[in-house]
Amino acid sequence: EVQVVESGGGLVPSGGSLRLSCATSGFTFGAYGMGWFRQAPERPREGVAAITTNGTTYYTDAVKGRFTISRDDAKDTVYLPMDNLKPEATAHYYCAAASFRGSTSPDWWSTFYYAMPSWGQGTVVTVSS
User: Fold this and answer.
1) H or E stretch at 125
2) What would the DSSP string read from start to end of 90-118?
3) At residue 87, what are phi and psi to the nearest 5 degrees?
4) CA-based nearest residue to 33, from 108, 123, 106
5) What are the pLDDT digits (tens) for 101-118?
6) What are the phi and psi torsion angles at 126 (to 5°)?
7) Which H helix or E strand runs over 78?
């Protein structure tokens, strides 16, 4: 059974930092791309960051330079350190695994979605102003 479990969310002030983790099991982690998505209240889910099996990374423009996705294939875990958080980052953050080999399109998240990802239950990030 595929399991994707996020952790690390919480409440931080604007400008603060958090580090999200996503522990997985039940599949060959090293063979899958991993992604972080978020959904704010009354907003559609949006792609935040993704990483392929060879370490190529993708980010939404709003987080470039402040969030860094990484993976540890020995631990079957993907991370998302988030620095200089802004109130608009407040959302439910989800981790997902998919057969994502990368994308030549700016809308990399669409390619990720089409790979039919397996989702975790999410972790909540709240950034106070």
Assistant:
1) strand 123-128
2) -EEEEEEEE-----SSS-HHHHHHHT--E
3) -55, -30
4) 108
5) 999 888 999 999 989 899
6) -125, 125
7) strand 77-82
Written as six digits, the tokens of 123 are: 């972790």
Rounded distance, CA 45 to CA 66, Å?
Answer: 20
- 103: number of Cβ within 10 Å: 18
Instruction: Tell me the C-alpha distance between 45 and 30, whole Å.
Output: 25
In terms of C-beta density within 10 A (0-12 exposed, 13-18 middle, 19 or more buried), how is residue 33 classed?
Answer: buried
Alpha carbon distance 106, 32 (integer Å): 20
Supply 76's token pair.
């079957």
Q: Which two tokens stand for residue 74?
A: 């020995």
Q: What is the distance between the alpha carbons of residues 23 and 79, in angstroms, rounded to a whole number?
A: 9
The pLDDT of residue 124: 98
pLDDT along the chain (129 residues), means of 10: 96 98 97 97 96 97 97 98 98 97 91 92 97
Q: What is the rounded CA–CA span in Å between residue 16 and residue 10?
A: 11
